[in-house]
Amino acid sequence: MTKGALALLVHGGTDNWSPQRWKDRFDEVCEGRPVLPFAGAKSDPAAVHYAAVWKPQPGELAGFPNLRVIFNLGAGVDALMADRTLPDVPLVRVAIGDLTARMTEYVVLHVLMHHRQEPYLRQSQREKRWAPKSQWAASAVSVGIMGLGTLGADAADALRGLGFRVAGWSRSPKKIPDIECFHGEAEIDAFLRRTDILVCLLPLTPETRHVLNRPLFEKLNRTSPLGAPVLINAGRGGLQNEADILQCLDDGTLGGASLDVYATEPLPLDSPFWTHPKVVLTPHNAADTDPDEISKYVAEQIERFEAGGALENVVDRGRGY
Ligand code: NDP
Ligand code: OXD
């Protein structure tokens, strides 16, 4: 019997987002199952039981009458949640060790960069200035992670291992050894007050949109060894008020920022972030997506689902993540 087809909705892109690369990988791991690129899937929509997608056009998924599961090819599902016609079937997101390890590398790299005064040292090097500043210990710095889920919890663990004082903030209460855990609106001020380096790994939902704004930055600790608090955002651009970030960097409310995500991506050429001396910018590749790992994860989930097993990492549509 022919297996239900997998529709692949990945539009354009190069490298890891090349539709052909995904098609080749899925063909390898979905033995006996037709893998239909978007044009093929459109010609026989009733044959499609599964969709593997990254930022599909709103309405695209509604065109498959026999869809059973949607697999988002990344961790964040904000683009899908914005589609009011999204079929009411389980929506599975990526939560795998490969992606988590990549994000933890990014977070550790950028926390260390600010902690070890790298922007200052690189500038001194360019100017041939031998001008060491005293360096404080990791144990003198409080890192606060907004979002203590798959990614935030792993980054917290790695930072704690390096000796930082680590806290996290989430929606529901948590207990993690040696991590100070805060949750909900009632505890956010206490969380911010003790934070020198703020790392944001929240999902973008109606509740979290523009949460990174001036009133929040003003609550961060003003007495840290870094001089002024630092922001690191690798969640989503919609979490940040970009005008507030720029003004806060300019008036000293923030001492620096590492940004991987932006309100508009690719970042427009006229964005002041490109050349801002206090901004360390990366092009939304904090945790790059590996088609080899993710196609295997999706194929395994389909096999388990068809054998009567439970899907993993199903999005709670009510919460939006
Ligand atoms: P998870 O769903 O595992 O974790 C989300 C965390 O955020 C949870 O701890 C959750 O709390 C918390 N949270 C959600 N809403 C609120 C709220 N209103 N108030 C307080 N806390 C809240 O997601 P992941 O860790 O896997 O991923 C996080 C995000 O990272 C993704 O949604 C995506 O946007 C981004 N990302 C970015 C990448 C990049 O390359 N830049 C790559 C991959 C992901 P609770 O635990 O109580 O539910
Ligand atoms: C993701 C991303 O959500 O890469 O996985 O941004």
Element layout with pairings:
Blueprint: E1 5-10, H1 19-29, E2 35-37, H2 38-43, E3 48-54, E4 69-72, H3 78-81, E5 91-92, H4 97-115, H5 118-126, E6 142-146, H6 150-161, E7 165-170, E8 180-183, H7 184-193, E9 197-200, H8 214-217, E10 230-233, H9 242-250, E11 256-259, E12 279-281, H10 291-306
Parallel strand pairs: 1-2, 1-3, 3-4, 4-5, 6-7, 6-9, 7-8, 9-10, 10-11, 11-12
Can I get a quick summary?
The protein is α/β, with parallel strands linked by helices and 321 residues long. It has ten helices and twelve strands.
Note poorly predicted spans.
none
Number of strands: 12
The CATH topology annotation of the largest domain reads as Rossmann fold
Question: Which ligands, by name, code or SMILES, are bound?
Answer: NADPH dihydro-nicotinamide-adenine-dinucleotide phosphate, oxalic acid
Strand order of the largest sheet: 8-7-6-9-10-11-12
The amount of helix comes to: 25-40%
- Round the Cα radius of gyration to an integer and report it: 21 Å
CATH superfamily of the largest domain: NAD(P)-binding Rossmann-like Domain
Strand content: 15-25%
The top-level CATH class of the largest domain is: Alpha Beta
- Terminal Cα separation, in Å? 35 Å
Q: Could you please describe the fold and organization of this structure?
A:
There is one protein chain. This protein has 321 residues and is an alpha/beta fold. The chain has 2 domains: 5-94 and 289-306, NAD(P)-binding Rossmann-like Domain (Rossmann fold, 3-Layer(aba) Sandwich), CATH 3.40.50; 100-281, NAD(P)-binding Rossmann-like Domain (Rossmann fold). The protein contains 10 helices and 12 strands. The protein has helices at residues 19-29, 38-43, 78-81, 97-115, 118-126, 150-161, 184-193, 214-217, 242-250, 291-306; strands spanning 5-10, 35-37, 48-54, 69-72, 91-92, 142-146, 165-170, 180-183, 197-200, 230-233, 256-259, 279-281. The strands form 2 sheets. It has a 7-stranded parallel sheet with strand order 8-7-6-9-10-11-12, sandwiched between helices. Strands 2-1-3-4-5 form a 5-stranded parallel sheet. α4 (97-115) packs across α6 (150-161). The longest helix is centred in the first third of the chain and has 19 residues, at 97-115. The protein is elongated, with a radius of gyration of 21 Å. 38% of the residues are buried. The mean pLDDT is 97. The site of oxalic acid has 6 residues, from loops.
